[in-house]
């Protein structure tokens, strides 16, 4: 005969009622309405740019304006490629934006690793200086930066666009905060006991831990460099060194703007970014959310 102890833990029996999922039933129709309105407001400028790029200026300026695409896109696109060196401008933008993205992925991560995990004299004051530079408007640095490029004889060259953007204060700050939260000091000490140098700790341990965040930083740097207009307008003079934004500016005449031609060039310049986000959009979201729920 089996005896049961009186001190046994009580058995909790299921009640038979289905468990309620968290947040089920809390999403109302106005939530979907707000999301649909947000998507519409975000996508409508791109759609309107495509509509204008398929019509002539007369169709754009009529009242009420047309909201349906026309049939002139390929003719206007051919005119874009014949009016300015648009293909070369696309190549230049890819070279500049890609170089800046790769440089920021490595250099900002390296600087963030130094500020987060290395002990050296003046670390905290230097990091404060980096944060202060984020508060300075970019326009204030144009004149001294132009003087530096002139002394280096880099005016009207692609390196004048690449080198100033190889590191950013935002990237250093972001990678410093990320590395401080995901890289344990015990792991670094164990690596040093195994004979790893500081560079090996960075390259074999720190960088793989923040690879997703570094990818997002590189993607943001790529988009920023691709859309940059002010600095290339100041430092680039030759049409063969135009970036895509300068090529779009060259489509506009001095006293008359052909909106169909200008918007056609803008839409063509946007297509590479759309393709990029289609392929890496999910990875970008994963990189932004990486570490968001780590306690």
TrEMBL record:
Membrane protein topology class: Multi-pass membrane protein
Ranges in coiled-coil conformation: none
Keyword list, A-Z: Cell membrane, Membrane, Transmembrane, Transmembrane helix, Transport
Any Gene Ontology CC annotation: plasma membrane
Domain annotation ABC transmembrane type-1: ranges: 90-280
Transmembrane stretches, start-end: 29-50, 94-114, 126-148, 154-175, 201-223, 259-280
Gene Ontology terms describing biological process: transmembrane transport
Classification via CDD domains: TM_PBP2
Entry's localization field: Cell membrane
Top-rank lineage group of the source organism: Bacteria
InterPro entries membership: MetI-like, MetI-like_sf
One Pfam short name: BPD_transp_1
Family: Belongs to the binding-protein-dependent transport system permease family.
Protein name: Cellobiose transport system permease protein
Organism: Salinibacterium amurskyense
